[in-house]
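Reply to dn_fold:

You asked what the input looked like. This is it:
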Amino acid sequence: MADNNEIILCLIPFLLDQLDDDDDDDFTLPTKALMLDHRARRTRMKTQHFFETTVPLFLPDTFRRFFRVSRGTAEILYQHLGQCRELRKREFRGGREENQTEKKILMTLRYLASQENTMEISDRFGLTEYTFLKHKNLVIKCIINNLLSKFIKWPSVTEMDMIATNFNDMGVHEFPGIIGAIDGSHIQIEPPSENPQSYYNRKRFHSIILQGKCKDDMQFIHTNIGWPGRVHDAKVLKNSHVWESGYQKCEYGRFHLLGDAAYPLRVWLLTPYRDTGHLTRQQTYFNKCLSS
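and this is what came back:
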């Protein structure tokens, strides 16, 4: 015999009209709860034509705030990801037309740029949650497999000379041979179910660490992502392959990275003198120059 709840679910469309009547006391509380939940699901409305009509009207600043990239950067993503076989639009042979590649990319950017959940984003772009999740995962996979090594890469020796010149021209003080600056950033996350305390950082929220090395134009040349927020910056560096190959990557001492006091001093990594209260005037001046 079918379960009572299954019977109720079948009858809900007919019972909903009776829920607002004065004599709805005939329904039990669980029955009312199931009916109200079904009503909420039934009345859920998706935004119509947001991608097709609203997004094209965004001003440049609005577009950047909403997707956290400029239109120009989005266009570059369209061009590069549009060449990925997994994202190419198949030939239309009837039925429901496939979503545009640009739409898949923009809703993925919105997911990465906001705190909206999957239901909110899928409704905004007029899709089911399943379809949104499928496209989002595919876009991220294509970015990692096709764009990561193309855009985040260590500079060549020729490029290092140019970067070092640009770095040296940026400040008042001369620091020749600098090809990048290293630092960490905490990416806020929901507390994981396992070992949440390991992700609770000194800024008092749960995070994973993104440790990046950037050149003078703020483009990444290397990243190390995923360490729990409680881990010290120096430990993150020591567990990256740059720690072992930094001297070689920086042309055996010819070039250097700049880091703050959280990092250890190396031939290829310049850091401030540790202030133990006994710094000389020259050491204090060096620290001031380094930080400016």
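The longest strand covers residues 178-188.
Hope that clears it up.
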